[in-house]
């Protein structure tokens, strides 16, 4: 058992060293690539036989600086994480560090496309790209931040997807059901409980049951939205026995 633990620690340490070395080489490569594009050398494109005239445009430089910035940001974040957890590094997370530069680049270009297209979608006009403006530096910085803060970018992208592709559903009909069952049914459909208003009733049959709801049954509602309930009670406005007032989540 001790020898197995020593072997595992050795493998984890070796994985940590390889991860840091890989990230250092990635940083060196993207740094060289940044300089290569900045001087319009385009060495890689030249070796691959691409037409360089199409690469000497302001828009290409803008996109290239954004992608390279994302790669640098992702690489720096990966190096920071690897050094922070070096003493307790686990080799099963090595793919996190391998994909860090690539993920940073992908997030940067996605953010670049969304931010520029949003202006046009909402009636604006995309600003013209000028080779003599600091927009290159600004996009490089945005790309670097997107790569470095990949976790926060993912959260932002999730919220944009929810807004853009929100699917409306019919509000469930819980009128007449016991309050506890109504709450469970609403939450089961990925909806929240807003407030539960207690209304005094005379009928024993209405005690503890839902009298009204908002939105009304069948009205369109999006996932995550809240439903307000009105529950009957024969206890002079107090909550029905065995039930706690639901709070909005």
Your description of this structure?
This protein is mainly alpha-helical. Helices cover 54% and strands 11% of the residues. A three-stranded mixed β-sheet has the order 2-5-3. It has a two-stranded antiparallel ribbon with strand order 1-4.
Tally of individual domains: 2
User: Could you tell me the mean pLDDT?
Assistant: 83
Shape summary: elongated
User: Which bin fits the share of residues in helices?
Assistant: 40-55%
Number of strands: 5
User: How many H/I helices?
Assistant: 8
Strand order of the largest sheet: 2-5-3
Give the topology string: H per helix, E per strand: HHHHHHHEHEEEE
Reported for the largest beta sheet, the result is: 3 strands, mixed
Low-confidence stretches: 237-244
**Helix-and-strand structural type:** mainly alpha
Beta percentage is 5-15%
Query: Terminal Cα separation, in Å?
Result: 48 Å
In short:
By secondary structure, the protein is mostly helical. It contains 8 helices and 5 strands, in the order αααααααβαββββ.
